[in-house]
Amino acid sequence: VLPHIVWYSGKTRIGEGVVENGIYRFLWKSPIDAGFQNIKAEVFPFDPAKQGIGLRGLTREMSLPVSFKHGRHSYFAEYDESLYAWYEFWANTADSKAAQDSAKSLVPLSKQNPNWLPCAGTYGLAVGNNDRWTLPFEPFKQLSRSYGDESVLLQIRYAPLKDGSLLETELFDVNTGSKYTINLDIVAGNVLALSLEKQGIFYRSDVPIIIDNDGFAIARLDFRFTGEEILIGLSGASTVKIDQVNDWRVLEIRGVADGKGNIYLGQNTGLDAERLADTAVIGEIAVSYPEVSPIIASKISEQLKKEGDNNNEYAESDSNDNENNGDTEDTSTDNAAYAL
């Protein structure tokens, strides 16, 4: 039995479908007038349209407040100037950096219309087997190919719904032509798994999913090309401050990327799409090209911290020795030289 639900606003039918396809929750564009709106749900054990007329289901009504004072929070707003592309999903898939340019909107890989799902008091773009999207540009071609510390930084604000693919990335080796497929999956409900299969060997690195108070989590992928290897860093840190992220997990591929490839939201598993629920609701996506790879910046920051701790221990030990020996000779020059 697949229960069928029909939703009404007053006498107007505003949605219907089976529970298994997620119709127990749906996005509804409310009337323009603020105040309380009456909503009714009528539940049937089957689709009443296929069983004839005159059927009545079990009904429940509710009164919902409609207000225009509540606004969505743009998580990556403070980095607006440094972002190359920024998708906020204000009921569209446009790039907020160029909202009037349709060529910069996300590109659908499955059905044409976006599937908007409510989540945590707001809504976002559903992704999964039946809802797949890709960037309208090849992100890795934007690099200067100088193979410095620059990188492609992808940040996603999302709410996990079920285990499955959040995104997959394709990279190509300029020398061998080999294709590398890097997957980012939700596993066991609370883990982000970054994985790669190369020459029959499976590599995987995990970080915990950290849900913020707003019901969303953050996933960051840093793609860095050195000219000898490809580094893919994953972080699940909840802070919006990229310079405060220090929990990177890194996969390394020996090879040189040729700049081709793209990033795909969702994954085509080949299974019956109508029977699969979506994996996540995406609230925002940001793409940027930091001058210094966050992976490298994190390592530098960690190294400086270690050196600072060592210097403090050295200074404390030296100070204790002077006190014990009654020596008042100034050693600040030595300590300064050590710090340099």
Oligomer: single chain
How can the largest sheet be summarized? 8 strands, antiparallel
Apparent shape: elongated
Total helices: the number is 2
Which structural class is indicated by helix and strand composition? mainly beta
Secondary structure: helix percent: 10-25%
Explain this structure.
The protein is mainly beta and 340 residues long. Mean pLDDT is 79; it is low at 326-340. Strand 1 and strand 2 (12-18) form a beta hairpin. Strands 5, 7, 8, 10, 15, 16, 17 and 19 form an 8-stranded antiparallel β-sheet that branches. A 7-stranded antiparallel β-sheet has the order 6-9-18-11-12-13-14, with no helix packed on it. The chain contains 2 helices and 19 strands.
SSE layout and pairing:
Blueprint: E1 4-9, E2 12-18, E3 35-44, E4 58-66, E5 83-87, E6 107-108, E7 116-119, E8 122-127, E9 133-134, E10 152-160, E11 164-172, E12 179-187, E13 191-198, E14 201-208, E15 217-225, E16 229-235, E17 249-254, E18 263-265, E19 280-288, H1 294-325, H2 332-339
Antiparallel strand pairs: 1-2, 1-3, 3-4, 5-19, 6-9, 7-8, 8-19, 9-18, 10-15, 10-19, 11-12, 11-18, 12-13, 13-14, 15-16, 16-17
Features:
340 residues, 19 strands, elongated
Q: What would a concise description of this structure say?
A:
With 340 residues, the chain is mainly beta. Helix content is 12%, strand content 38%.
